[in-house]
Amino acid sequence: MNLFAEAFAWMFAPEQWTGNYALPTLLGQHLALTAISVLIAAAIALPIGWLIGHTGKGREIAVAVSGAARAIPAFGLLILLVLLLGVLRIPEAAVITFVLLAIPSLLAGAYTGLEAIDRRVVDAAKSMGMTGWQVFWKVEVPLGMPLLVGGIRSALLQVIATVTIAAYVNLGGLGYPIIQGIPLRRFDQVLAGALLVAVLALVVDLILAAVQHAAVPAGLRAGRPTRRRARADSAATASAPATA
User: What secondary structure letter does DSSP report for 174?
Assistant: First the structure.
């Protein structure tokens, strides 16, 4: 408990809120790296994932590529890219690393969202005269949005946790107190940095959980209580004693 008290004391010390390495500055750097990486990954993964989900082709390749990308150690990849691109390209190396980390979750969220849609709904939309493009944008994308937001949620959390290594190559972020504190044996500082990253991830997760719930189409949300009531009524009917 003393270590936690020391960590909070370090976190709220006035010197941690001023200067080039102030906590608000590090938070801004952390969020900027996360946002840039996830946006670039989304621009790559979402069109591919939607194409796979819409056509039903290429799923096996996407699963294989995603699995391989998940197996890549982020820290090792970052160091390798820094060595390949040079010290003047460190920001680009870091962004490439985080983009590759975010792509699998975004890709999976995009194509599983469309695959999970009942084909009868798509067929009904086509029978009403909708074109393939209209079916995609007006039916498939809205119905697949909850799973897509789930993929975005997973990607953001993974990138937020991994951006801590950016401090190792002097890009700042909330990993800076951790990277700096380890060789100095400042365990209060290390714990404070870890707590800040954990709190940031928790806040983002809660926000996206609410967004994911809101992304469920209103018709589906309205239908859920009805189905629950129907099941309850069926169970009550089955358990009721038979009358002569």
Answer: T
d(CA 193, CA 231): 49
pLDDT band with cut points at 50, 70 and 90 for residue 231: very low
CA–CA separation, 30 vs 155, rounded Å? 15
- Phi, psi for 65 (deg, rounded to 5): -65, -40
pLDDT in tens, 61-108: 888 887 787 788 888 999 999 999 888 889 999 999 999 999 999 999
CB 208 within 8 A of CB 156: yes
With vertex at residue 119, the alpha carbon angle to CA 117 and CA 122, rounded to the nearest 5 degrees, is 90
DSSP letters of 15-53?
GGGSSTT-HHHHHHHHHHHHHHHHHHHHHHHHHHHHHHH
Place of tokens 């870091």: 94
12-39 pLDDT tens trace: 999 999 888 899 999 999 999 999 999 9
Please name the residue that has the structure tokens 């890219």: 81
**Residue 96, φ and ψ in degrees, nearest 5:** -60, -45
End-to-end Cα distance, the chain:
69
**CB-based contacts of 159, cutoff 8 Å, min separation 6:** 34, 37, 38, 98, 101, 102
The domain locations on the chain are: 2-10+23-231
pLDDT for the residue numbered 222: 58
Q: Determine the Cα–Cα distance for residues 148 and 81; give it in Å rounded to an integer.
A: 29
Q: Is domain 2-10+23-231 given the CATH code 1.10.275.10 in the classification? A: no
In terms of C-beta density within 10 A (0-12 exposed, 13-18 middle, 19 or more buried), how is residue 84 classed? exposed
Residue 180 identity? Q
